[in-house]
Amino acid sequence: MSVSEPWTSGILAATLDRLTSLVFLALLALPGITLALKGTDVEGIREEGRTPAPFPDVDDTAVLDGSFSGAFEDWFADAQGTRITLLRWRNRLWWFGLRHSPTPDMVRSEEGWIFTTKRTSIPVFRGLRPLTLRQLETLRNYIERRAQWLALRDIEMLLVIAPNKQSIYPERIPERYTQHGPTQLDQLLEHMAATSDVPLHDFRTVLRAETAHDRPEAGDYTYHPLGTHWTDRGARVAAATMIDILARGLAPDFPGWGPLPDDAFRVEPRDTPGDSSANRLHLSDLLTQSVYEHFVHPPRARMVDKPAHTRILRTQDETLPDAVVMHDSFGLALWPILSQSFHESIFLSVRGANDDTVEAADPDVVVMIIVERNLLGLPDFWPFPPRGDDARRPGN
Question: Whole-angstrom Cα distance, residue 390 to residue 350?
Fold first, then answer.
């Protein structure tokens, strides 16, 4: 070996060390440079269903108590310029490579369906979060008080617990999530049947039966494979079931009233993502699903007003009953379908549910629609006025 060879090798090693350091520093600087040039990817963060963390206020208190550092970390995590790109590639690896959900908010089935884990919906499905007797009694008391409040005003009530997707497609949940006991809805149905005269109806039965009409080859399902809600077909079946139930109580005043016939509806495919969580994973270009719109043609009900958290629709047929429908997100697919069977229908989102609207509308029926995973939140869904408001309490 010549004398120059060790010297040359040392130069080469030092050069490689410098290049490695430069590349490392460039990668560290890249998020900051991208942030300076492009700013925060606000739209990318909103696709995740949230707003970007703001830059924290700087004051002595925030610095001393440590709240500034935590808020700064939240801001920087959202603001770094390469965040969305890195997340997209990370999620691709998890979804397609490891075949698992890249976020604890979701469960990925073997077929690539998405199930939410929010509000402990998976442990509830497995029977690992049973309701206590006190919780069951709280729900029973609320349901009975609301039924009484409406009965005193000669209004029919229908409470609809919209099933979680895993309650309709339990066979698609990964095998590791074995069931060990009844769900909270199972418990409530059994408790109400044993202790109350107010009927509750299990919509899981009719929706599970509807899955027999699924067309996998066309991507036509009762619930959205990539979302958490029922499709238009699922909503249509739920709406027909609601009207069937209500028709029994309204028969003396509205004889012959019932669900619209099948030939009143048209079904058309839509080039939209529908209810999908793929955008939250930044994989909407790779994870797609078919969407079919079910609508009455020609429409019988038309929008007449749209105040905050409210939709008011009306048909020209004054022989039909009037309705107030209080709903969470499961009502969004229902109102274009359900409204066709009423003279006037007022749809109140959960933020707009209140006694005043019901009393002013004086409807024939009130329908309450709340998803199964929010069952414990039912007493806050349409809350009673404070106890001190004697004029508004049930029985007055």
Answer: 24
394 pLDDT band, cuts 50/70/90, is very low
Tell me the one-letter amino acid at 370.
I
pLDDT of residue 18: 74
Q: Which two tokens stand for residue 137?
A: 């009694």
Q: CB of 319 within 8 A of CB of 343?
A: yes
Model's pTM, two decimal places?
Answer: 0.84
Enumerate the domain spans of the chain: 4-98, 121-392
Q: Measured between alpha carbons, how far apart are the two ends of the chain, in Å?
A: 105
List Cβ neighbours of 78 (8 Å cut-off, separation of 6 or more).
40, 45, 52, 53
Give the Cα separation of 295 and 177 in Å (integer).
Answer: 37
Length of the chain in terms of residues written: 396
What CA–CA distance (Å, rounded) separates 297 from 315? 13
49 Ramachandran zone, left/alpha/beta (phi>0; psi -120 to 50):
left
The pLDDT of residue 41 is 56
Where b means 16+ CB within 10 Å and e means fewer, 65-78 reads eeebeebbeebeeb
pLDDT in tens, 101-146: 999 999 999 999 999 999 999 999 999 999 999 999 999 999 999 9
